[in-house]
Amino acid sequence: MRKIFLDTETTGLDPKQGHRVIEIGCVEMLGRQLTDRKFHYYLNPEREIDAGALEVHGINLDFLQDKPLFGDIAAEFLDFVRGAELVIHNAPFDVAFLNAELLRIDLAPIETICDGVCDTLRMAKELFPGKSNKLDALCTRYGVDNARRTLHGALLDAELLSEVYIAMTRGQGSLDMELAGPAPSGKNRAARAANKKPPRVLHASADENEEHRRLLSQIREENKGKCLWLEIEKDN
Q: Which has more confidence, 22 or 180?
């Protein structure tokens, strides 16, 4: 039930070449609802930043000179993510950098701290094969406002990813709610059944029905003419 949406910015593309993490941003979600808990630090990488990376995130070394080292914030970071599922766009990239940082201070890999890693880039490629599945493209596809994203930033990207993830996994909310609490005993189930009121039926408005049709048409267009809901409606 607890998810941490995470993003990093780095000095370059490959931790095996000594590149370092310069920013970590995380936001917490419980039961498909964002909480107010966030984790965000800029970090001193103790090395130069590649020109290509600087063009992406705009974070220069002068700005980072007085920032903490990764080792200074590692314990706080691990406490924040411990036991949660990490949700990351292009997870192998960020996980490799985090594990390289942890290895430098003789700590175990991030996978041993967290309850799994979800790669939303892989999810998006399965949903939209052959299409651009960068974060900006997904924001556009799902109607997530990314106007503030003129440059990459770890905390902003983590926040945007959480909104994209909710849209990508639309329909799972009821399942999460069912799993949220312990199952009631037999006596409690009987009491609840006896006191249960008939459900209130709320019918969709004309505008909501039109929005539903628009969404189905968009899904069909993005999946080469295939949309399960439209096929079911046609059969019925």
A: 22
